[in-house]
């Protein structure tokens, strides 16, 4: 029973990210170790959380398109893998379909439940009641969205992985195949959207350097990340020196006057 309560608290912690300013506590790399700690296997939680983070890396909301429900997939995928003494691959195999299924349930809440609080907030706004609008904001988020999802995640954990597998097996094969394909495309889509926003002539050379290091020199991601940090440090130091030289030259010119 204690494990169920801890899973509920972890799910609430993950969903509270929407109230704390997007601190990324919804991410698998954060929730995985917490689940592992709650279930007495921190090492497995860290490994599975990192693996799920790679799978969910592209799961970001773009416009009106909603990504897979990361919190439920991370918590349940990690928990079921640890309880069943399975590896990270099993966590991904369970986590992604669960996240896609809960995404559909979340969409239902957005369509059917949240508008009830939004309409009430409009009435308070028309009456000039700012506190009422604020209450509807909180109530709509908590009772119309995130508390139901946290309860659903906890209930799924309580019922066990076998029940969840049976529920997933009830979904038609063509829908499962579509969900699996879309989940596999999401990381590439996420990177493509990110590159479209930040890519410029200054960044392109570093993109190809990373490609060469990973594709041709077979360096692991950690080694490439450490090298990137070193490059950033060197560039920042060079920039500071250039700024210092520029300031000194300006002071010399001022002295001439």
Structure, explained:
- This protein has 257 residues and is mainly α.
- The protein has two domains: 2-198, no CATH class; 200-257, no CATH class.
- The chain has helices at residues 2-15, 28-38, 42-55, 70-83, 88-112, 114-126, 130-159, 161-169, 173-198, 204-216, 221-256.
- It is globular, with a radius of gyration of 23 Å.
Residue runs with pLDDT of under 50 for 5 or more positions: none
Quaternary class: single chain
Terminal residue distance: 79 Å
SSE topology string:
HHHHHHHHHHH
Helix content: over 70%
- Alpha-beta classification: mainly alpha
What is the overall pLDDT average?
79
- Give the strand content: under 5%
Please, how many domains? 2
Task: Tell me the radius of gyration.
Answer: 23 Å
Number of helices: 11
Please tell me what the overall shape is: globular
Largest sheet: none
Tell me the number of strands.
0
Features of this protein?
about 260 residues; mainly alpha; globular
Question: Concise description?
Answer:
The protein is mainly alpha-helical and 257 residues long. Helix content is 80%, strand content 0%. One of its GO terms (biological process) is phosphoenolpyruvate-dependent sugar phosphotransferase system.
Topology:
Blueprint: H1 2-15, H2 28-38, H3 42-55, H4 70-83, H5 88-112, H6 114-126, H7 130-159, H8 161-169, H9 173-198, H10 204-216, H11 221-256
Helix pairs in contact: 1-2, 1-7, 2-3, 2-4, 3-4, 3-5, 4-5, 4-7, 6-7
């Amino acid at each position: 029973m204690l494990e169920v309560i801890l899973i509920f608290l972890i799910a609430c912690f993950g969903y509270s990210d929407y109230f704390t300013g997007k601190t990324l506590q919804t991410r698998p790399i954060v929730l995985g170790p917490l689940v592992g700690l709650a279930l007495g296997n921190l090492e497995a939680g860290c490994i599975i959380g990192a693996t799920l983070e790679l799978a969910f890396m592209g799961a970001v909301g773009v416009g009106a398109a909603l990504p897979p429900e990361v919190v439920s997939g991370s918590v349940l995928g990690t928990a079921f893998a640890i309880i069943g003494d399975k590896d990270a691959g099993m966590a991904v195999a369970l986590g992604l379909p669960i996240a896609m299924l809960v995404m559909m349930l979340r969409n239902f809440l957005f369509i059917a439940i949240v508008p009830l609080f939004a309409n009430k907030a409009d009435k308070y706004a028309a009456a000039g009641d700012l506190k009422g609008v604020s209450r509807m904001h909180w109530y709509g988020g908590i009772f119309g969205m995130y508390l139901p999802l946290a309860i659903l995640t906890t209930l799924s954990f309580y019922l066990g992985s076998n029940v969840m597998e049976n529920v997933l097996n009830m979904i038609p094969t063509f829908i499962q195949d579509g969900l699996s394909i879309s989940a596999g495309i999401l990381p590439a889509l996420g990177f493509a959207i990110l590159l479209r926003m930040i890519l410029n002539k200054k960044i392109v050379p570093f993109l190809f350097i990373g490609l060469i290091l990973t594709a041709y020199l077979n360096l692991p991601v950690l080694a490439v990340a450490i090298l990137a940090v070193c490059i950033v440090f060197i560039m920042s130091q060079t920039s500071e020196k250039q700024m210092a030289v520029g300031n000194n030259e300006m002071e010399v010119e001022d002295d001439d006057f």
